[in-house]
Amino acid sequence: VRIRHGFIRKVYSIVTLQLLITVAFIASIKYVMPINRFFFENSWLLWVAMIGTFAIMLTLACCDGVARAFPGNMILLMIFTVLESILVGVI
To answer: What is the pTM assigned to this prediction?
Structure first.
């Protein structure tokens, strides 16, 4: 039971952190005009974020060694979260 609670706490902590990062990116892109202008003047960033998102998804889905190795999987998950946040914020 203790292991299960620890796992659930870890999963919810990661999801909460992802949501906070996403909300922060969306709010900054929407309400901070210099950031807003920057993303609309540099539309290539949208393509970089989209390609990066798919590359990380494929890496995590296809490479079990990468998906299960501790520091690497968390780094890729946070990069994925930032890229997705940029996509949602610009959209």
So the answer is: 0.87
Integer distance in angstroms from the first to the last C-alpha of the chain? 42
Instruction: Give tens-digit pLDDT for 18-49.
Output: 999 999 999 999 999 999 999 999 989 999 99
Residue carrying the six token digits 């990661």: 14
Report yes or no: 70 and 29 within 8 Å, Cβ to Cβ. no
Place of tokens 């494929």: 58
* C-alpha–C-alpha distance, residues 10 and 74, integer Å: 12
DSSP 69: S
Task: Tell me how far apart the alpha carbons of residues 90 and 73 are, in angstroms, rounded to a whole number.
Answer: 26
Return the structure tokens found at 41: 């003047």
